[in-house]
Amino acid sequence: MHEEQLTSRRVHCPYCDSPFDLLVDPSQGSHVTWEDCHVCCEPIQVRIDVDLQDESAFQLTLGSDDDVL
């Protein structure tokens, strides 16, 4: 992973609704990962869907631990 490939997106925790900046590396393709909230420490499920034609175009979906993404 190279720092120049990281993109920052402002998102909100699905538990406590606190805003935070999430760093995303779209060069990894579409995948699911986990990030802990920096405020409430709950595990956030992060789904990254990358456009196959344009790697810089991607969609984020955040969910709680029990959500199926």
Written overview of the protein:
InterPro entries: zinc_ribbon_bacterial. This is Cysteine-rich CPXCG. With 69 residues, the protein is mainly β. It has one domain (3-63). Helix content is 0%, strand content 46%. The chain has strands at 7-12, 19-24, 31-36, 43-50, 58-63. The strands form two sheets. It has a three-stranded antiparallel sheet, with no helix packed on it. Strands 1-2 form a two-stranded antiparallel ribbon. A hairpin with a 7-residue loop joins strand 4 and strand 5. The radius of gyration is 12 Å and the shape is globular.
Q: Note poorly predicted spans.
A: none
Q: What letter string, H or E per element, gives the SSE order? A: EEEEE
Helix proportion range: under 10%
When the domains are counted, the total is 1
| Mean of all residue-level pLDDT scores | 89
Query: DSSP strand (E) fraction?
Result: over 45%
Question: In what order do the strands lie side by side in the largest sheet?
Answer: 3-4-5
Helix/strand/pairing category: mainly beta
Number of separate helices? 0
Supply Rg: 12 Å
End-to-end separation in angstroms reads: 24 Å
Shape: globular
Defining key terms:
about 70 residues, mainly beta, 3-stranded antiparallel sheet, two-stranded antiparallel ribbon, 5 strands
